[in-house]
Design brief:
CATH architecture: Alpha-Beta Barrel
Order of helices and strands: HEHEHEEEEEEEHEHHHEHEHEHEHEH
Structural class: alpha/beta
Mean pLDDT: 98
CATH class: Alpha Beta
Radius of gyration: 20 Å
Strand content: 5-15%
Distance between the termini: 13 Å
Number of domains: 1
Length: about 425
C-alpha cells in the first residue's frame, strides 16, 4: 500500500495494512538537529549536512534515507523548496556539530554569544542565549499598550517571533512569481512521491494574541476586554481567510492536510473556560475550517499542546479532523479516555510515545514497550497516525529514536 493511501485510510477511521508513521511532517512532529545529527552518526550517514529549517526550535528535515529506513508516510510541503545547496549556509550547533540553515534568515551573534533572530526590518524578535537550545521571543509589539488597539497595522501583526518563516513561507504567495513557484513545487512533490503532504498554514488565533500582547495581557484581555479581543481575532481571521483562499486555489488539490496551530492547553487544563472558548474562539475556527472543507478535500489538522479534553467537543463541532500532539501526560488526556470518547470523530496524530518521561530517560526496551501499549489503544479501527508526543529533543539518544520508530512499524501492522 502507498503512503498517501495509508494515511487517507487512517484519516477516514479505517484500518490500512499498518498504522502510518510521521517524523517531521510539521514543526511539532520532528526532531532537534542535535538529536538528528546523533542519529545520522549512529546510522553511519555521512553525506552532506542536516538541513535545519526551523531555527526557533532548531529542527531538521528528515532526509530521504531516514524516511525510507523508518517507513515514514508523511512529508512537510516545505521540503519541496530550497532544494539547491546555494539556498543554505553552514551553522554550528551547541554541541559544535554542523548543519545548514536557510540563507534568507536574518541571524547575528552578539559579543556574548547570544544569537539574535531578526525580521527583514532588523527588529530583534528572538534571542537564543549561548547556553540555550532554543530561540525565545523578546519583542511584543502591543505589550506595553494599556489595551488592545482600536485599529491594526498589517506590519504589526507579523512583528512576532513565529512570523519568522520556515519554508515555503519565505515566499510571498501574493506575488505572482512566488505564487507560481509555490504551486509548481508542491505539485511536483505530489506527482513525484507518494507521501501524504502536510502544509503548515498556522492561522493561529489564541497564540497570535499572546505573541502580540504577551500571554499575561492577553489572558486578561480575553475576560476583561471581550470586544477588543474579538476585534483583534476578527482582523486575524480576515487576514487568514485571504491567505487560505490563495493557498487552496493554488495548491489545495496537491495537499492532504492543512496544519493549523494554537496551544490551547496547559498541563492542568485549557487556558480558558469552555464557555469562553465557545463564545470567542469556536465561531472563528469554524469559519476558517468550513472554508477549507468547502473548497478542498484537505483535512484540518490542529496542533495544540496541553490538556484540551474539555475543548475537544467544541473543536470537533467546529470542523476539526486531526489533533496533535495528543499530550497524554496532561490532565484528562489519558489514551483510553480519548480513544473511547472521541476516536470516532477525530484522528489522533501523536501520543505514540511519552517524550516527557520515557523517550529521553528510559532504555530502548522501555521505549518499545511504551510505543506498543499506546498503539494497542490508539490504533484500533484506524483514526491514528503514529508520532511521538511533540518533537524529539536534543538530549534523546539515537538508540531510543531508532527503538521508537522500529516499534511503530513492528507493532503497527494490522
Amino acid at each position: 500500500m502507498k503512503s498517501r493511501e495509508r494515511v487517507k485510510l487512517a484519516l477516514e477511521h479505517k484500518e490500512a495494512d499498518r498504522i502510518p508513521i510521521d517524523l517531521g511532517a510539521m514543526r511539532s512532529t520532528g526532531i532537534a538537529t542535535i538529536a538528528y545529527n546523533n542519529l545520522r552518526k549512529k546510522l553511519k550517514i555521512t553525506k552532506g549536512l542536516a538541513r535545519m529549517y526551523d531555527f526557533i526550535q532548531q529542527l531538521a528535515y528528515p532526509e530521504k534515507e531516514i524516511r525510507d529506513l523508518f517507513h515514514i508516510d508523511v512529508i512537510d510541503a516545505g521540503q519541496a523548496f530550497l532544494n539547491d545547496d546555494s539556498d543554505w549556509r553552514e551553522w554550528t550547533l551547541n554541541d559544535n556539530s554542523k548543519c545548514l540553515i536557510p540563507k534568507y534568515l536574518n541571524v547575528e551573534i552578539d559579543s556574548e554569544g547570544t544569537v539574535l533572530l531578526k525580521n527583514s526590518d532588523n527588529v530583534i524578535l528572538g534571542k537564543k542565549p549561548k547556553s540555550s537550545l532554543y530561540v525565545d521571543q523578546c519583542y511584543w509589539v502591543y505589550k506595553d499598550l494599556p489595551g488592545i488597539p482600536d485599529t491594526f497595522n498589517e506590519k504589526d501583526l507579523v512583528k512576532q517571533l513565529w512570523a519568522i518563516p520556515s519554508p515555503p513561507w519565505h515566499l510571498d504567495i501574493f506575488n505572482d512569481n512566488d505564487y507560481k513557484i509555490f504551486i509548481n513545487n508542491i505539485k511536483k512533490l505530489h506527482d513525484e512521491t507518494d507521501y501524504a503532504i502536510m502544509l503548515a498554514v498556522g492561522c493561529n488565533l489564541f497564540e497570535t494574541g499572546n505573541f502580540l500582547r504577551g500571554m499575561e495581557n492577553f489572558l486578561v484581555d480575553i475576560y476583561l476586554d471581550k470586544a477588543g479581543t474579538q476585534r483583534l481575532l476578527d482582523k486575524l481571521v480576515e487576514k487568514n481567510m485571504k491567505f487560505l483562499d490563495r493557498v487552496l486555489k493554488g495548491a489545495g488539490e496537491y495537499v492532504d492536510l492543512l496544519q493549523f496551530g494554537d496551544d490551547l492547553g496547559s498541563q492542568n487544563g485549557p487556558f480558558m473556560s469552555p464557555d469562553i472558548f465557545k463564545e470567542i474562539f469556536k465561531p472563528r475556527y469554524k469559519k476558517m475550517w468550513d472554508f477549507v472543507h468547502d473548497n478542498s478535500s484537505c483535512k484540518v489538522f490542529l496542533h495544540s499542546c496541553g490538556s484540551v479534553y474539555e475543548l475537544l467537543p467544541h473543536l470537533i463541532d467546529a470542523g476539526l479532523d486531526v489533533l496533535n500532539p495528543v499530550q497524554t501526560t496532561t490532565a484528562n488526556m489519558e489514551p483510553e479516555r480519548l480513544k473511547k470518547e472521541f476516536g470516532k470523530y477525530v484522528t489522533f496524530w501523536g501520543g505514540g510515545c511519552n517524550t516527557q518521561y520515557v523517550l529521553a530517560a528510559k532504555s530502548p526496551e522501555e521505549v518499545k514497550e511504551d510505543v506498543k501499549r499506546r498503539i494497542e489503544i490508539f490504533g484500533k479501527d484506524g483514526g491514528f497516525v503514529f508520532n511521538q508526543i511533540h518533537n524529539v529533543l536534543a538530549n534523546v539518544p539515537p538508540e531510543n529514536v531508532i527503538a521508537m520508530l522500529e516499534a511503530a512499524y513492528e507493532y503497527g501492522k494490522y
